[in-house]
Amino acid sequence: MTKPLKASGFLGLATMMVVGLYQFTLLAGGNAVPGWMIGGHAHLGVISILAIVMGFAVPVIGVTGRLRTAVTGMFIAGQWGIPGVVWIGEGAELPFLMPTAFLWGICLIVSMLIMLYATLTQDSSGIGGEATGVTPADD
């Protein structure tokens, strides 16, 4: 279940990079980059990095079952919803979509609170996994 988080994170970073290149072409052509495009670009980049981190954190912390599904679904919804509502709401001039940013933000917050709960309630001996006895390479 963490594969969707990691995949969404990498797709988000690739999307953010494409948008960044488009912003560069606008600037190179002597045009200004709209503020809504910059804001969506920045949010997608940061939240996508966090999606990748979450993809590794969820199994390490031991989030399972419905909580794991909730964390994954809500985080991905928030990851794309926040920049999406900025790009579509402002960029496509559909301002009635802007209040949905609260919904996407709440999805991110709830997923973080579930991770907090899992962190505080799990047995601390399982955090980080067990030593494997394998000596790391020197390269």
Key features?
membrane; mainly alpha; 139 residues; transmembrane helix; DUF8059 domain-containing protein; 74% helix; single chain
Your description of this structure?
This protein has 139 residues and is mostly helical. It has one domain (2-122). 74% of the residues lie in helices and 0% in strands. The chain crosses the membrane at residues 7-30, 42-63, 70-89, 101-120.
In short:
The protein has one domain (about 1-120).
Shape, per Cα inertia axes: elongated
Radius of gyration: 18 Å
What number of structural domains do the residues give?
1
| Main sheet characteristics | none
Number of helices: 4
How helix-rich are the residues, as a percent range? over 70%
Q: What's the β-strand tally?
A: 0
Unreliable stretches covering 5 or more consecutive residues: none
Mean pLDDT: 89
- Structural class by sheet pairing and helices: mainly alpha
Q: How much of the sequence is in beta strands? A: under 5%
Encode the helix/strand succession as letters.
HHHH
Could you give the distance between the termini? Answer: 32 Å
Transmembrane segments: 7-30, 42-63, 70-89, 101-120
Keywords: Membrane, Transmembrane, Transmembrane helix
Domain DUF8059: 1-139
Protein name: DUF8059 domain-containing protein
